[in-house]
Each structure stands twice: as structure tokens, then as C-alpha cells.
Design goal:
The protein has three helices and no strands. It is about 80% helix and about 0% strand. Helix 2 (about 40-70) packs antiparallel against helix 3. The protein has helices at about 10-40, 40-70, 75-100.
Length: about 100
């Protein structure tokens, strides 16, 4: 039986790295769907698709460095805040695309 306090810190780093990969994959799917829907909505939809693509690139720029090494404790605050804002932005873009009439 494991003794209390004898956790393997290596597993936590692996779980963190995999969580960042899942985040990047989920954002890739959402951005791809937003771009696909935006391109069916005419000129304004194309602008929304471009904004979605820029949001996707921003999230990748934030998450890719975390694949190689997990952040030190207490250093993820700004990145998490930017990811939360990007998530809210994708929700707003999705709402705009759904309410926008097809071209």
C-alpha cells in the first residue's frame, strides 16, 4: 500500500500535459466548425471566420509551450484568463453565426 504523501509527481506532469493537448484539440474543433459555418454566411461570415481562425492561433500559441513542460505552480493565471476570454469569444462568435442569415 502507498504511504500518505508518497505520490508520484511525474504522473501529475503527464496529466497536465495531456489536459493541455485536449484543450488545444477542443479549440481546434470549435474553430474549424466556426470557420466552416462562417464561410456559408457571406461576407460578414467570412470576417467572423477570420476572427475564429485568429482566436485558434492565439490559443495554440498559448498552449503549445505547455506540451513540452508543464508550468510551475502559480504561473498559469494569465494563460487561464486568456483562455477563458477566448472561450467566451468563441461562444459569442457562435451566437453571431447562428443568428446571421445564410448568404
Amino acid at each position: 500500500m502507498d504511504q500518505p504523501g508518497s505520490r508520484d509527481a511525474g504522473l501529475a506532469a503527464e496529466r497536465t500535459r495531456l489536459a493541455w493537448r485536449r484543450t488545444a484539440l477542443a479549440v481546434t474543433v470549435v474553430a474549424g466548425l466556426a470557420v466552416r459555418l462562417g464561410l456559408t454566411r457571406g461576407g460578414a461570415g467570412g470576417a467572423v471566420a477570420a476572427v475564429a481562425a485568429l482566436g485558434w492561433l492565439a490559443v495554440l500559441a498559448l498552449t503549445l509551450p505547455r506540451f513540452a513542460r508543464p508550468p510551475r505552480p502559480g504561473t498559469g493565471g494569465p494563460v487561464r484568463a486568456l483562455l477563458a476570454l477566448t472561450t467566451a469569444g468563441f461562444a459569442g462568435l457562435g451566437l453571431a453565426l447562428v443568428l446571421m442569415p445564410p448568404a
